[in-house]
Design goal:
heterodimer, A: about 325 residues, alpha+beta, 6-stranded mixed β-sheet, 4-stranded antiparallel β-sheet, 7 helices, elongated, B: about 260 residues, 3-stranded mixed β-sheet, 11 strands
């Protein structure tokens, strides 16, 4: 009896195959896990990095708005892309409502260097979303200068001019793909004025990542641009008026009127928010309402000194 | 008893030829699949490492510009990773097309015997910088040029000395094929197939001339398009002139 059954019991091929299947399955699971872990980490890092890059591009757009769109002041932001069509461009004029739309992918300018805001999320319907305070919108006719306040808030913080939002994966109650903000953004973020970076009451129903742009960040750049314009006027004034800068603010305002400055300068009342101080014939200071920077303009110097890095008070 | 023992040994001696063949076939399939998967993962990892390295170079370029008010010139094949010439200005080496000046930028990473920063395929990263002029100075590689560019934005215009990026080497018709035409810098990894050029698009990025032992471009048109395993695997990043200027203003280098 032993001779008859022993060979069948010890063939072992089935066990080998079983081990191979187990090995294959384990290897596949491990590889998938490693891939997913890398992918998840990379995706999170990429989202953060690309949000910061998009914010930098938006700030650059705002600073150079007066150059790329003559007649308009520095400080304006693009309208959101509300139709999500193939062109990826802003939909102008901006919607009358405050509702956020997708961050435009690009915007062409006359200078030949288009603004490439971000291509993040175009493949998986997770493009960034953008909300812009009405005064700071591209198509706004409202006066925009250093006294202009941002009307958006984030977690109760105010004076925010624009907000970038990464929508995250679809969560319960949302349906995609469409152009309805509430199907991408959670809590109060879809409403477009009072934004939140978390939702304590329903943390599982919130996965937005939010990056604000503060008024002082925009005005740090815009006042630099305006000071450059002022310096140009002062540089012309100096040799034509006995080699001296205007001796006081009334003389400075008269010089501004006579120059004249660019159309956007006067149309947005920049002259009324500038504070001018005479130091000597070759040196003056210029500051702006609601901005903590004091610029020092010195005749013949290629650079303009400033008292601090940011307008933030 | 002895006979019984011999008989049993013969019965447990091993597997049949068919069983062994089946097992070897399965083993071959499994190993083949694993090797393919690991190869793909390795390739993807190298591409993501290359992209991360280029991102680091980009941040270092912004950091250098924020500290010095200008961008560095490229390193040459014999400058050991230092910009040539030191101090910027007119980048005489190959019309502004060379290598990442890793020493000047303070970048860590693998370098070759010539001190050039290497991508994951052990090939030096290429770096080109625009020789556009503003106010009589190089607009991006001199502080005076950057100041002039900020004071006179109209000098930022496309021309024979500016760099442009297109989505194919012909860059025609315009403007449909043009992605950007006044970019300050371009940084390129030539990808896995760096020792050969599989398309005109790759030649445009790094294949027009040979200097020392290296192929480099000597034209101002670059190509950025979708990755394709057979004819385009370059990884390319470029800076925006507008973002560069705004970051210099934020850093206090301008106006």
């Amino acid at each position: 009896m032993m001779r008859g059954t022993l060979p069948q019991q010890q063939l072992g091929a089935a066990v080998l195959i079983l081990f191979l299947i187990l090995f294959t399955t384990t290897a596949a699971v491990l590889l998938r896990a490693v891939n997913n872990a890398n992918f998840g980490l990379n995706a999170a890092n990429n989202t953060q990095r690309e949000m910061v890059a998009a914010k930098q591009t938006l700030l650059a757009f705002a600073m150079s708005y007066s150059e790329n769109f003559p007649g308009s002041p520095p400080g304006r932001f693009p309208c959101p892309d509300t139709d999500n069509d193939a062109d990826g461009l802003p939909n102008t004029p901006c919607s009358a409502s405050n509702l956020p739309g997708r961050l435009p992918r690009r915007m062409d300018t006359g200078s030949g260097a288009p603004f490439m805001f971000s291509d993040h999320g175009i493949l998986n319907d997770q493009r960034f979303w953008l909300a812009v305070s009405p005064v700071f919108r591209q198509s706004s006719a409202a006066v925009l200068n250093s006294n202009s306040a941002g009307s958006l808030t984030l977690d109760g913080q105010n004076d925010i001019v624009a907000i970038l939002i990464a929508p995250g994966d679809v969560i319960s109650g949302q349906t995609r793909q469409n152009n309805t903000a509430a199907n991408y953004l959670e809590h109060t973020n879809a409403a477009g004025t009072a934004f939140a970076s978390s939702w304590a009451a329903n943390p599982t129903l919130f996965n937005d990542r939010v990056l604000p742009i503060y008024r002082h960040e925009v005005m740090t750049l815009a006042t630099a641009r305006v000071t450059q314009v002022v310096r140009g006027i002062l540089t012309t004034y100096h040799p034509a008026n006995g080699n001296t800068y205007p001796v006081d603010e009334p003389a400075f305002l008269a010089a501004l009127t006579a120059a004249p400055p660019p159309v956007w300068f006067s149309a947005n009342n920049w002259g009324t928010v500038i504070n001018y101080a005479f130091i000597n014939a070759n040196s003056v200071t210029v500051s702006f309402d609601s901005c903590a920077i004091t610029y020092t303009v010195t005749f013949g110097q290629p650079d303009i000194a400033r008292s601090q890095a940011s307008c933030e008070v | 008893m002895k006979k019984l023992s011999n008989t049993r040994t013969m019965h447990i001696a091993g597997f049949t030829l068919i069983e062994t063949a089946v097992v070897l076939m399965i083993l071959g399939l499994v190993l083949g699949g694993l090797i393919t998967a690991i190869g793909q993962i390795t390739q993807n990892k190298r591409r993501s490492d290359a992209q991360a390295l280029i991102n680091r170079v980009e941040e270092a370029l912004y950091g250098f510009a924020q500290a010095n008010g200008r961008l560095p010139c490229p390193a040459s094949d014999i400058s050991n990773g230092v910009e040539a010439p030191a101090g910027g200005g007119v980048c005489a080496f190959n019309g502004g097309h060379g290598f990442v000046p890793a020493v000047t930028l303070g970048l860590q990473g693998r370098v070759n015997a010539d001190g050039l920063l290497l991508d994951p395929w052990m090939n030096p990263l290429r770096y080109s910088v625009s020789q556009l002029e503003s106010g009589g100075n190089r607009a991006f590689t001199s502080l005076a040029g950057m100041q002039s560019l900020f004071a006179n934005p109209a000098t930022l215009v496309a021309g024979p000395t500016s760099l442009r990026v297109c989505n194919d080497a012909t860059c025609a018709p315009l403007p449909a094929r043009e992605l950007a035409n006044t970019v300050p810098t371009v940084v390129i990894s030539m990808g896995a197939n760096w020792s050969a050029f599989t398309s005109a698009d790759e030649v445009a990025n790094a294949g027009n001339v040979t200097i020392g032992v290296y192929r480099l471009t000597n034209t101002n048109t670059f190509v950025s398009r979708e990755y394709n395993d057979t004819n385009y695997d370059d990884i390319i990043n470029w800076l925006s002139p507008h973002v560069l200027v705004s970051r210099l203003v934020s850093a206090g280098q301008l106006p």
